[in-house]
């Protein structure tokens, strides 16, 4: 809550309607900053598409609407991109309130050369993940992605096999109360994060190399 900007608080206070990925968390935020009397509607992956006509109707009626996502930046691996696209297509005015972002925070903290960044959101699973890793293996720069705690071990094993024991930066619960930061080798991270909780932001240092290295039989 303490990362919110004065501009964002002002926007929430002046909004006619607030859309929230998690209404419970957003209500706590509003209560903390004494923002009262605002209708708060649920807006997430479960109803993102079907909610857009109603939202566009309110916007066309002149209402100001704020979108708040849960511990993340709207539209960046969080709900919002479909709505923003619909607004552009309808000629509806848009704005963004810059705030905490796990992506940019991780890039700032990793200490790697970030002149070339490959951001892929949440990695796919299984064979698709291994295919993506082989595609970026020959590049130089950093690969940035989000990962769930139940998949981080499998992801790190694939990275170790396909790309190698590169330098890696992992931030757990980025910008939250129980934030944890790690920088070291992939092999060490595999042991540290094999049993963990909380969403992870990963920055992997890419050093180039042959793309066809590290293929396993099951990938053919």
Features:
220 residues, 37% helix, alpha/beta, 3-stranded parallel beta sheet
What is the global morphology? Answer: elongated
Helix/strand-derived category reads alpha/beta
- Report the total helices: 8
Widest sheet: strand ordering: 4-5-8-6-7
Strand-residue fraction?
15-25%
Low-confidence stretches: none
C-alpha Rg (nearest Å): 20 Å
Largest sheet at a glance? Answer: 5 strands, mixed
Report the average pLDDT across residues: 92
Order of helices and strands: HEHEHEHHEHEHEEHE
Distance between the termini: 47 Å
- Work out the number of β strands: 8
Oligomer: single chain
- Provide the helix percentage: 25-40%
Question: What does the secondary structure layout of this molecule look like, with pairings?
Answer:
Layout: H1 6-14, E1 17-20, H2 23-32, E2 40-42, H3 48-60, E3 65-68, H4 81-90, H5 102-110, E4 117-122, H6 126-137, E5 140-147, H7 152-162, E6 167-172, E7 180-185, H8 186-192, E8 200-207
Parallel strand pairs: 1-2, 1-3, 4-5
Antiparallel strand pairs: 5-8, 6-7, 6-8
Helix pairs in contact: 3-4, 6-7, 7-8
């Amino acid at each position: 809550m303490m990362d919110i900007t004065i501009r964002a608080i002002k926007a929430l206070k002046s909004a006619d309607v607030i859309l929230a990925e998690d209404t419970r968390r957003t209500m706590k935020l509003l209560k903390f900053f004494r923002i009262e009397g605002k209708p708060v509607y649920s807006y997430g992956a479960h109803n993102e598409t079907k909610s857009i006509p109603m939202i566009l109707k309110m916007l066309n009626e002149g209402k100001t609407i704020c979108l708040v996502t849960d511990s993340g930046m709207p539209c960046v691996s969080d709900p919002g991109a479909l709505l923003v696209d619909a607004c552009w297509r309808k000629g509806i005015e848009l704005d963004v309130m810059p705030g905490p972002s796990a992506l940019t925070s991780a890039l700032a903290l990793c200490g790697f050369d970030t002149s070339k960044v490959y951001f892929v959101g949440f990695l796919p699973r299984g064979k698709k993940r291994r295919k993506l890793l082989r595609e970026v293996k020959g590049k130089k720069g950093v690969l940035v992605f989000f990962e769930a705690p139940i998949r981080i071990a499998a992801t790190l094993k694939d990275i170790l096999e396909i790309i190698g024991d590169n330098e890696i930066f992992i931030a757990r619960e980025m910008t939250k109360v129980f934030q944890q930061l790690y920088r070291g080798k992939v092999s060490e991270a595999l042991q540290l994060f094999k049993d963990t909780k909380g969403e992870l932001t990963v920055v992997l240092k890419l050093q180039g190399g042959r793309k066809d290295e590290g293929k396993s039989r099951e990938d053919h």
